[in-house]
Amino acid sequence: MTRIQPAHRIAVLNPVLLLIISLIMILPIINIIAQSFSGATAINAGEVLLWPVEFTTSNYAAVLKQAAIWRAFGVSVQITVLGTLISLLMTATLAYPLSRHEYRERKFVLVLVLITMIFHAPLIPNYLLIRSLGMLDSLWALMIPGAISAFNLFVMRSFYLSIPNELVESARMDGAGELRTLWSIILPLSKPAMATMAIIYSVTLWNNYSNALYFINNRALFPLQVKLREFVITDSSDLASTAGDVMNLSPDGLKMAVIVIATIPIMLVYPFLQKHFIKGMLIGSIKS
């Protein structure tokens, strides 16, 4: 009788284990999508599992009719796009001098950045700082305080260290200053790292929730995630009545539709940057 070698067992068990883990993560998402396209009777009866029952788009129609949803969606898009650009600019301009050996104080600054990565500011001092800067009830409070992530900074710096120093020296010999060197030489070569940072920053900003609750009181400035929270933890009957279809709309179906709407935009970004994202993360993980 032939015995199965341990290596063969691992080769068989790994795909099975990964498949099980993938199903554990994917099945709840499929259930949410199925409920968002199901009728109220089927949802209330608990008949919806992985496929829509009594297929309908009424839940999405009711949600998309709400001006508050579109306003929150616009706020989230504004925060994500503008905040990502600000974060990329600030991270790149700080990582570049920290990667240059001629900058004598780079180790001291790196230690300070590392401290912020390990120890986070408590909520009350952070709130007092935002208030003293006059950013309360402002979208700047959701973009500026976390504009530079320590982890992203170290990844960007590691990528800069992989760029041959001869390129920088050649640019300087041609009369280019530091900003011109950064803009014309370093950044064009940093597309994988920039794509990696763009995904990380955009996902963080899109999912911004707690800071909006702490620093934003004006409901007109609430991002989509805060609106999502209001629909999830409160009864959606008011939304159904506003849509004029109380009998055919389920509060759970409306909640699932809002969750899908809040998730799809940021999921659509990743496929376009996947190649650069993987390359950037690998480079950041193997460089010192």
Layout of strands and helices, then pairs:
Layout: H1 6-36, H2 40-44, H3 58-64, H4 67-98, H5 106-118, H6 123-132, H7 150-161, H8 165-173, H9 178-189, H10 191-206, H11 210-215, H12 224-233, H13 237-243, H14 251-286
Q: Can you characterise this structure?
A:
With about 290 residues, the protein is mainly α. It has a single domain, classed as Orthogonal Bundle (MetI-like fold), CATH 1.10.3720.10. It is built from 14 helices and no strands. Helix 3 (about 60-65) crosses helix 14. The radius of gyration is 24 Å and the shape is globular. Residues about 285-288 have low confidence and may be disordered.
- CATH classification class: Mainly Alpha
How many helices?
14
Structural class: mainly alpha
Shape: globular
Rg, Å, rounded: 24 Å
- Fourth-tier CATH superfamily name: MetI-like
The counted number of beta strands is 0
User: What profile does the largest beta sheet have?
Assistant: none
Integer count of domains: 1
**The CATH topology is what?**
MetI-like fold
Straight-line N-to-C gap: 51 Å
What proportion of the residues is helical, as a percent range? over 70%
Q: Give the SSE order as H and E letters.
A: HHHHHHHHHHHHHH
**Beta-strand content estimate:** under 5%
The parts where pLDDT drops under 50 for at least 5 residues are: 284-288
Second-tier CATH architecture: Orthogonal Bundle
> What do the pLDDT scores average to?
80
